[in-house]
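Entry 14. Structure prediction run on the chain below.
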Amino acid sequence: MTKSDHTHLIKKWSHELGFQYCGIARAVRLDDDARRLEAWLNKGMQGTMQYMENHFDLRIDPSRLVPGARSVITLLMNYYPPVRQQPEAPRVAKYAYGKDYHEVIRSRLKELLAKMRAAIGEVDGRGFVDSAPVLERSWAVRSGLGFVGRNGNLLVKQAGSFFFIATLIVDIELEYDSPFSGDYCGTCRRCIDACPTDAIGEDKVVDGSKCISYFTIELKDLLIPDEMKGKFDNWLFGCDTCQDVCPWNRFSRPATELEFTPIPAILNFKTSDWEQLTEEGFKEIFRHSAIKRTRYTGIRRNLRFLEGE
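Output returned:
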C-alpha cells in the first residue's frame, strides 16, 4: 500500500473508533511554540503546576518522544453533554460529566495503533491524551483541524471547542493536511469579559495561575487564596465559562459516545448532597470519573470555599 492508502485507512479507523476529526502533520520541532511556552513559564503563569516546566525539550520535539518520528496524528472526540446539572448546584465542568476521558481515549489510541501495525507492518508510535509533554493544540492547528481562540481553546469552525484532543506520534510517512490558517475570533472578546477571575489576556494568553480550573483541580494547597473569594461563580470542579460564552459553541452538538454518558450524581446532586458525601461515597461514585483527580479533600476544600469558609 502507498502512504495515501495508509492515510486513508488511519482516518477511516479513527472515525470508527469514535473520533469526529483526524488531521495529520509532519513531525517537526515546534520552535515558535517553544519561544511562546518559555515566555509563559518565565511569567509564572503555570502557578504551582511544576510539571509544565518539566521535559521542555520533549514538548517541542516529537522525535524525543518517538525516535524517528515522521508524523503527528491529531484526533478530536466530542464530549458536549446532552443534559445539564441542577440549576443551583455546585458546578462541574462538562468534560467531567462522564467516564474519565483519559481511560476512554487511551484505549482507543492503543486500538488505532494496533490496527496500523496489523495492516501496515512495523510501526513505532505512542499515543498521548493531556497527560504527557505534548503541545496538542499546536499540532491540531498544524494538521488543519482548527484555530486557537482568545480563551486558549482549540476552536473548530462550525463545531466549537467541546472536544478532547488526542495525539498519536508515529515513525511512518503519511500524507499531511494543510495547516489551519486564519483567526476567526475577530473583534469578539466575550471570553475575556466573562472570565470571573480575569485570567484571559488580550493576546490569547491565559494566565493559568488565575484560572478557576487551576484553583479547583491543580492547586494542592489546603486553602484557596482569600482574594479569590466571591469570584468562582459556583464552580466546584473546573470551569466552562469561557467556552459557554463563545459564539462558536452555538454549533456544538451533543456527544454520542456512551462512555461520556453523564454520571447521575453529577446531574442530580444538590449542595446538600455534596456536603453529605463521605469519602467512601466519593471513591465509589467517582472511581471512573475525572473528578477523582482532585480527591475527596479537594472537593471538600472547594465546597467550603464556595460557601465562604
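The chain has a mean pLDDT of 92.
Filed with the rest of this week's runs.
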